[in-house]
Amino acid sequence: MSLERAQNTCNLHGAKTVFAVIVIFMGLIVVSLTFSWLDILRINRFVTDLLKESSDSSQDDCFNCFPMDLRSMISPDRLCDGGKVDVLLLVLSSVTNRLARDAIRSTWGSLCNSLNSSIRLAFVIGNNLNKTYNSFLLEESNEFHDIIQADFRDTYANLTYKTMIGLKWSVTHCSSVKYVMKTDDDMFVNTELLPILLQAAPNRNFMGGSCWGPSSPHRQTSSKWHASLRQYRKPLYPPMCSGTGYLLSRDVVGNIVNVSRDVPFFHLEDVYVAMCVNKFAVSPVSLNGFSIMIGSFTPCAYRNSVITSHQLSPETLKKYWADSRTCPLSLLRPEQLFKTSRVV
Ligand SMILES: *[C@@H]1O[C@H](CO)[C@@H](O)[C@H](O)[C@H]1NC(C)=O
Ligand SMILES: *[C@@H]1O[C@H](CO)[C@@H](O)[C@H](O)[C@H]1NC(C)=O
Ligand SMILES: *[C@@H]1O[C@H](CO)[C@@H](O)[C@H](O)[C@H]1NC(C)=O
Ligand SMILES: *[C@@H]1O[C@H](CO)[C@@H](O)[C@H](O)[C@H]1NC(C)=O
């Protein structure tokens, strides 16, 4: 082969390469105009999640995968003894939230746990790594007898354990209660109206609160309620009620505890409960007065129509409670308070 021919081939190669580079470059420009860089990252994550997901055991294929045999640390065993108990309030709290618990005890909680009250209230708490705090909690329990503590790490990601431990506790220690209500320690709950409202509620197959139909999971990682495809594969959650406050009839509580063994752990407790409830064909209903926000305050609203209100600091709660005592209690009939709307 002559030197000249070799150079020609080389030039031809060079031209092809340059052409290919230009094509790729223009292709990249088109792609980058179509998708932003963030989109590409998102698609990339979607695909990785999907790949990870398919290598995991499937979400539906789960047997005995959510065991709740966590060690009990504190249990107010006699809480539901004596008297007629209509509703048990499970208030999710944490070891360090003593001020919130005290504010509840001195406001809406003060109408619970006496023998002449039909409401029982217990705070549900996990295990704090700081042993000092745990010993404070034991002292608090000895004083108020209203604390359920179990041995799981007390973190936001473990909230589902709190709810499920509370529900399981109610099955074993409060078995004749008619209803269980799950709520949080930054809530106002109208314990004056609740027993009246419940007189009109169904006593079987019932779940109610601030509820909605099928909804999309929050896929953006910045969300407090973020759920990756790996954690939840389907496009929609089942109908659900906000974790700020939902009521369950006793049979539903028993069924949730029973089916939970075969429903894999999911970190958002209200979604998890909805996933369980969805297994036995109970549809949640929305109830008037169950607010997931703080809303504007008037003494009469808080006394006579608001059933739940969210995100109250201990100081605000005490102030609202005191102010709402200045408005007289209306004599409302159960049917006037128990107003439902279907969500599905
Ligand atoms: C229930 O008993 C407590 C004391 O145990 C008392 O302070 C409260 O007023 C009683 N409530 C009613 C409605 O009788
Ligand atoms: C545990 O909490 C106590 C009380 O707040 C604090 O003094 C102590 O330093 C904490 N211990 C650890 C190991 O964080
Ligand atoms: C949840 O609790 C379990 C049991 O204590 C613990 O192993 C796990 O690390 C906790 N998860 C988180 C995210 O804190
Ligand atoms: C849950 O399971 C237990 C044990 O199998 C059973 O005794 C109970 O009746 C079940 N509860 C409900 C509500 O189905």
TrEMBL record:
One of its GO terms (biological process) is protein O-linked glycosylation. Coiled coil: none annotated. InterPro entries: Glyco_trans_31, Nucleotide-diphossugar_trans. Pfam families: Galactosyl_T. GO terms for cellular component: Golgi membrane. It comes from the Eukaryota. It is a single-pass type II membrane protein. Its EC number is 2.4.1.-. The keyword Membrane applies. It is found in: Golgi apparatus membrane. The chain crosses the membrane at residues 18-38. The keyword Glycoprotein applies. Its main location: Golgi. GO terms for molecular function: hexosyltransferase activity. Keywords: Glycoprotein, Glycosyltransferase, Golgi apparatus, Membrane, Signal-anchor, Transferase, Transmembrane, Transmembrane helix. PANTHER family: BETA-1,3-N-ACETYLGLUCOSAMINYLTRANSFERASE (PTHR11214), HEXOSYLTRANSFERASE (PTHR11214:SF314). Belongs to the glycosyltransferase 31 family. This is Hexosyltransferase. It comes from Dreissena polymorpha (Zebra mussel).
